[in-house]
Design brief:
The chain folds into 2 domains: 102 residues, no CATH class; 115 residues, no CATH class. The N and C termini lie far apart (77 Å). It is of the alpha/beta class. The chain is 15% helix and 61% strand.
């Protein structure tokens, strides 16, 4: 009986010891993962309008806001989110992430370049860019989130997997937002004339527009619903919806989703 009890105590102590060791490894892993971040060198350049700013980032997040009238600034960081801790090769790759600011006459390019890493990797870069309010803007990203605030200019965004959020912005003619898998959310105003296009292969498009907006809507969803709300009324359609919003619209709004849905709120 004494021997059995002793065995039980030893087993219990071993379980507790393994639990403590496991918890310690988990905490160390989380701390190491959180520490795997490198601040990128800040960049800035003086500019003049007319100007086009192009931001290219493979994976992560791009935030663009209206800033000073004659300056482009870029700050950000690179990180690895591997769990429980980044592999040594990933930590080394983190140190080799490059941020370039290239000037080309009336064009400024913000370029993020990842080093070549064999096997899977979880590098990501988060950028905060300020540009003149009326500078044309292009953002290209493969995976992640794109946020744009406070602009008054043409906007072109290409995002593979992720979400695009545009707020407090008046789009210029020719604006084009595309997401393969994810969503587009727009809260702002359309140009008074010209064409605006938004496309999502799998996901949703949501627009919140001022009550005084006038445009010709062309919306297409292969699988899903189209909802237009204005003047307290709700119009729902499947497949295709073509309608004029406001009187004598000179702006054409093209929305297309293959699988998902489209929602347009005017003044609501």
């Amino acid at each position: 009986m004494y021997t059995v009890r002793r065995v039980w105590w030893i087993a219990l102590l071993l379980v507790l010891l393994l639990g403590v060791v496991g918890l310690g490894i988990l905490v160390m892993g989380i701390m190491w993962a959180h520490a795997a971040r490198v601040t990128l060198p800040a960049r800035e350049v003086n500019v003049r309008l007319p100007l086009t700013v192009v931001v290219t980032n493979p994976v992560g997040e791009v935030v663009v806001e209206a800033g000073e009238a004659e300056k482009v600034t870029v700050t950000g960081w690179a990180e690895v989110k591997s769990f429980p801790w980044p592999a040594l090769r990933e930590r080394k790759a983190l140190q080799r992430v490059a941020l370039h600011l290239v000037e080309k006459e009336d064009r400024v390019e913000v370029q993020v370049r990842f080093p070549e890493v064999k096997g899977p990797q979880s590098l990501s870069v988060h950028l905060h860019v300020t540009v003149p309010r009326e500078a044309a803007l292009e953002v290209h990203q493969q995976v992640g989130r794109v946020k744009v605030r406070g602009m008054r200019a043409p906007l072109r965004v290409e995002d593979g997997v992720g979400e695009v959020r545009v707020s407090d912005t008046t789009l210029g003619p020719g604006s084009d937002l595309t997401v393969e898998t994810g969503s587009i959310t727009f809260d702002g105003a359309l140009p008074t004339q010209g064409t605006v296009t938004m496309r999502v292969e799998v996901g949703h498009i949501t627009l919140h527009l001022p009550a005084e907006s006038t445009f010709q809507l062309e919306a297409n969803v292969e699988m899903g619903d189209i909802v237009l709300r204005r003047d307290g009324r709700r119009l729902t359609a499947k497949g295709h919806l073509a309608t004029a919003v406001g009187s004598s619209p000179e702006t054409r709004l093209h929305l297309k989703v293959e699988t998902g849905g489209i929602k347009v709120d005017v003044g609501d």
